[in-house]
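PROTEIN DATA CARD
Card holder: DUF2627 domain-containing protein
Chain length: 77
Origin: Halobacillus campisalis
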Amino acid sequence: MRLIALLLLVTPGIIAVIGIKLIRDAIFNVFHPVFLHIAVQGIFGVLCVVGGVAFIGGFILHRDRKRNLTKGRFKKK
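Structure generated from the sequence above:
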């Protein structure tokens, strides 16, 4: 069970790191031919970073809610 949880957290983390690399490449004008334009590459990188961080944050929040570790602010009503 812990291995599955580890894989669930590592995969979005890797996607977020790839997104950071795509943003950096777009800023320094390194074009990857998979994307049509360098702006598309930068936007895709931002989406990867936001999606990866949001998934990891949601996973941690769900786990903390389940274990009753959140204070009153994040509890479901």
